[in-house]
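writing this on my phone so excuse typos. first protein, seq and then structure
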Amino acid sequence: MRPTPDPIGPGQESVWSYPRPPIAEATAAEIVIVHREVVIASTRRAVRTLETSHPPTYYVPRNDIREDALLRAGGSSDCERKGDAIYWDVVFGAVSAAVQRLR
């Protein structure tokens, strides 16, 4: 069975119109990541990846992420288009959230 895309509303994009193979494009959009009311990252230099049927993913430059909020987590992965990735946890006190960052 083939999925049926939802109708596209004003100002929206459809993940079904994203390309295959995926693309990566620079974006000047302001990307801000907040955890527990603390800004972890803020940038206008992110890279947005688009792939058919997947939500957009934003990659934030390392220099735009608070290093004191990251703790190296186990694991890594490789993508033929995006390259190698290593994984990090965002940690404040006893609270953590998993994140991924390209090497």
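second protein below, same order as before
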Amino acid sequence: MNLHIITTGGTIDKIYFDAKSDYQVGEPVIGELLESMGVHFPFTVESALRKDSLDMDDADRAKIRDCAQRCSEAHVLITHGTDGMVQTGKALKGIAGKTIVLTGALQPAAMKNSDAIFNIGCAIGALTSAAPGVYIAMNGELFPIDNVRKNLDRNRFESLAG
């Protein structure tokens, strides 16, 4: 598998600044994470945005779509903030010949108990086996983009049927 990774910001890339007492989107971390895990497939990383998904608009989603269409790889992983992930996924529908999986984290990758590495691993596993289309890999599950929502009360992703 040749993998193209598009980073957009979101919690997965957030870093904590003690002096500011807040989180801000930092540099993409996924390339470093994959190298530290010793992956044996070629991958490229492209930073499309460095935004919290709550701040994304239609122009940002069009840019992400353009990046996914333009890359030569058939397997595309997009790291994304969880709040706008479904909306971006729907904006990616219809890109022929590509398997696109969006993933993210509910805690920054830099934190000890982050779900980032688990979600990235699930997303990569899904990319090797899923049919072309758009999916979200979160909470140990793979969801087709037309059958997923973020349940804010439970702070997790689930199928529309719940």
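The beta strands are 3-9, 14-17, 22-25, 43-51, 75-79, 99-103, 133-138, 141-144, 149-151, 156-158. thats all i got for now
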